[in-house]
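Researcher: Structure for this, please.
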Amino acid sequence: MNLIVIPGGAFVENSYLLNDGISEELILIDPGSQINEIEEKIKKISFKKLVIINTHAHLDHVYGVQYFKKKYSAKFYIHEFEVPILNVMVEASNRFGLEEFSNPEIPNVDSFINDNEILSFGGFKFTSLLVPGHSPGSLCFYFSKQNNSNLENEFIICGDTVFAGSVGRVDLTGGTNMEDLVGNITNKIMNLPDETILFPGHGPETQIGIEKKSNPFLLGYI
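Model: Predicted structure, token format:
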């Protein structure tokens, strides 16, 4: 299995490259402004087809989408509720005022991902979990042993929904409130096996069991 974490950019956002090590299809998740770093990793992987899926559409997670769509003729997948956030990429860039986010190109969505949909990319079958709060269409991607018997550990690519010791902000574009976010995390993620690994949009990996015991934002809800 290839699972490569590529942190980068002003907000140290995590992009991911993923396939089962056999498939000629490569998944790119949340390509941000660290385009050069992603390219360096892509060059080392043999593949024929690239697909882009996003957990959500905040600028630090979506800035590189159009570049990779163009270069690799890749299709782009995201939840429909994120389209209004995609459409204000230019305004978000102006608000940040950072050179690395200058002149963003708004990508066209090729297909929308629904809640609890079984997706088949990169040799995997995995489930989309809609967990709004940080943004209206925030998705987590759950790779389970039920769908992939060859997995050593179950894992979730969880975007900015939950982090090691924290959760996503709710004061950014499309955010709701902390009670909504934490309630959705509790109902959609924290009921999965404790040993499930969480790969967040920023910072290090963690596990569900660890967050249930020590995440100050979740204690009292679980």
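Researcher: Any notable elements?
Model: The first strand starts at residue 2 and ends at 8. The chain is about 25% helix and 25% strand.
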